Amino acid sequence: MAVASRERVRRAAVKLFATKGFHGTGIRDLAQAAKLSSASLYHYMGTKEELLAEIMVDCLGRLLETAKATIDGVTDPAERLTRLVTLHVMTHARQPNETRVVDNEIGVLSPRLRRSVVQLRDSYEQLWSDAIDEGLRAGLFHTEQPGVTRIALLEMCNGVARWYSPRGALTLDDLAGHYVQLAMRVLGAPDRG
Amino acid sequence: MAVASRERVRRAAVKLFATKGFHGTGIRDLAQAAKLSSASLYHYMGTKEELLAEIMVDCLGRLLETAKATIDGVTDPAERLTRLVTLHVMTHARQPNETRVVDNEIGVLSPRLRRSVVQLRDSYEQLWSDAIDEGLRAGLFHTEQPGVTRIALLEMCNGVARWYSPRGALTLDDLAGHYVQLAMRVLGAPDRG
Amino acid sequence: MAVASRERVRRAAVKLFATKGFHGTGIRDLAQAAKLSSASLYHYMGTKEELLAEIMVDCLGRLLETAKATIDGVTDPAERLTRLVTLHVMTHARQPNETRVVDNEIGVLSPRLRRSVVQLRDSYEQLWSDAIDEGLRAGLFHTEQPGVTRIALLEMCNGVARWYSPRGALTLDDLAGHYVQLAMRVLGAPDRG
Amino acid sequence: MAVASRERVRRAAVKLFATKGFHGTGIRDLAQAAKLSSASLYHYMGTKEELLAEIMVDCLGRLLETAKATIDGVTDPAERLTRLVTLHVMTHARQPNETRVVDNEIGVLSPRLRRSVVQLRDSYEQLWSDAIDEGLRAGLFHTEQPGVTRIALLEMCNGVARWYSPRGALTLDDLAGHYVQLAMRVLGAPDRG
DNA sequence: CATGAATGAGCCTTCATTCAT
DNA sequence: CATGAATGAAGGCTCATTCAT
Hints:
By secondary structure, chain A is mostly helical. Chain A is built from nine helices and no strands. The first copy, chain A, folds into two domains: 45 residues, Homeodomain-like (Arc Repressor Mutant, subunit A, Orthogonal Bundle), CATH 1.10.10; 140 residues, Orthogonal Bundle (Tetracycline Repressor, domain 2). In chain A, helix 4 crosses helix 9. At the A-B interface, helix 7 and helix 9 of A face helix 8 and helix 10 of B. The structure holds a DNA duplex.
């Protein structure tokens, strides 16, 4: 069935791009992993680069939409950030491959394709900036360098995709909970514990 | 002069590996950037992969030695971490390319070469672990997941190489100072300010 | 309707083979131009090469039959040649694509298929040779190299397919008339004008 | 030696492009004929298309320069044309492959490369046009359609590359001489014989 | 009648590397 | 010290063709 093959290609690409990098992944590697001939691959994708861009846009787009929905109507900045961190960390823990591709391979995209990806990423990070800014204004968060703090916080959370393993002792909930605590500390929010 | 050429090759490799990735960098790119023919390149390096490993080992080795020297004799865990963070952040801000190569391209090394790099990295991270553990034991730091906290802290600090620009308003000292504060917060140390 | 599709394929092939060459025309180009899927194409043709041969044989066969009919019963060599030139030039002006395919792509046919095409072409050229020879025998034409003259004349007339455009000022009748004059000159016939 | 290899590539390309067409000639065919690996080919050429353009420009450029030199200072239009026809025919007889490439493969060039080739061809044909026009003005030539006559004449002469064989009975001088006679007839010049 | 799915073979080109000079 | 010349292997991608549906 066509849909299944298309999905196999996508999955194979995500895994391989994440582990071997875009340039380290050959079209033949992709074909083998998708159980297709390298020629058949091209029924389900444009160029290799377009496949990469598609993966990135989908992944980021989904994350952005979910994030918007998650914080919709939530006014408390701390709660907003709690939800953003939880979603972010869980997504990175559950889909480390997608995430690593998005984080590491933006640079290989040609300008045209890169633009749409960067735009999505910026929109997503704006959600964090907004929440942080409001928390600062409300006197809940404290930092002298909001910009640096925001990016440091994001980098900290991104790291999850690089090391978390579901085979370890830590559950997803524990993980997310702990990161929420770390985030609050980074933001200088009064410890709840 | 031989030394100069060798250095040019090294510099070119660092810059290119950092910006285009190992697999995205061709031997011809390297040659062009080093102002040598691609054949001459091989007077100054082994294989492309060996060049990569060399860069990584040098960079990590230097960082490890400097770190050891920096904390030598320092007993206060908070001071130890302060110095580690400062060194780490400054190194990442000053040499973002070397750092990104070390962070991103470990996976392309063959097992033999990878081992020595990983060993260095582990030794380096052990310095952080030790300081954190002692701080916890001394009641200075507070975290329920020391392992997670340590890695989250490191990832946060690594991020500097991905975004800091010396052309911005932030000085290196400001940057390091701010990250020390963030680190202390992450570790649950009482705010000094 | 089957016939219509078959005809669309044929027309598409003629146009594409003429403009891009046989090897420059892909089966997908053909399919797109014929508004069919590339798989459906094969309901209306054998292999790409057989399609080419078919086009050539049809085109040359029609030309040969028409030529035979045109000069049937005509005894005057000058008149015979006049009619051959007129038919030839008009055919080349009206169907430049078919003609160019026949002229340019004979070499790509495998020996088996090529034979039948070459045979038709030879039969056709024989009509010209016969007329010229008789004209010479009758003292109407004058040339020391009948073989060279015949081929030079044919090449001159073939050229029409390469440049004539119906959008220009020249009508088909003007064109043919002028070429008849040129042909008579080439053959050393006394100018009628 | 480098020059020899480069020359072998050129010669191989000319022969193969002429006999099998540009699209019908694979890079591997080229390599085999040039006695090089297909990778080594690229030391001596840019892309396949650039090689084609180079061949065309060189061939046409040489023809144009020689033609200019040949008619330089010659005022008599008939003499000018005699020399043009002689040069043209001899060149086409001696270098049929180059000529066929120029005549048949212009269409495969991308617009940028095509421009320079077409420009050369136009310059060359202008020499013919000028001579013909002057002959007409001088009352030496007679034709009601100078444009058609010129192109018919050129096509007739081009044909030589398609059929002349040095192994036949006809010498180059005979050939050229005969074509001069044919040309004069086409142009309506009074027969000299 | 029509086509999506599939592929082995092949396309042009670049890869990292070696070596004679 | 330096490099042109050379190449086997591999790169991403397209080819003409078949076949089950």
